[in-house]
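Review form for a predicted model. The reviewer records the input and the model, then writes brief findings.
Reviewer: anonymous (R2)
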Amino acid sequence: MKAGSSLAVALCLAGLCAGARADDAVRLDGLAAVVGGTAPSPGVDAILQSDVELRARITLAGHGADPRRSEPMTDALLRATLLEIIGEHLIAREARRVQAGTPSAADLNQERTRLVRAVGGAERMRALLTALSADDEELDAIARRRALVGAFLAANLEGITVVTDSEVQAALAADPDAGADTPAVRGEIRARLAREALDHTIARWVTVLRARTPLRVFVAY
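Model under review:
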């Protein structure tokens, strides 16, 4: 299981259309947050509202929304997306600080491929970018950051996703709905426990880094 692929914050996708604002059809712009300071300046990472919207619409497209249309977005989705991006910036900054290494071209390509797959393919991604007047450079920026985050996590979370047979057995015994004790069921449980351990550790990293890194959020959602 690749560490970088589980960074994403769990999004609450129920009722996304409820409470949408009338101006949601227009691509947002302006400053959403800064990481590494309290105002834009050299060495401070700026997160634009358009960055948040692009990522939120990738999420919507990945759940079946038409990428050619400006689907309404709730504050809940935008807020969760912003938190995810802030988490990525925090870990990326730490990776650069400790000189975790430069991601390879293969790493960058892998992250870009994941983004394209997330919306359902290259054609849907192109339609989404066109609808938002966005470009490939914005996708490349996301891919570079995620590749750097993945390299850092791979170096610092070694062994975190190792799940022992006894842990699988305990989880199987504790879940009456797990089904029969088969290799397939055990494999599913092992994968779930590994993912939960990774998500928990990443969340702890983000909490620690956020506590010691200046940042400021400018949006209300």
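Findings: The chain has seven helices and three strands.
Further findings: The chain has a mean pLDDT of 84.
Recommendation: see findings above.
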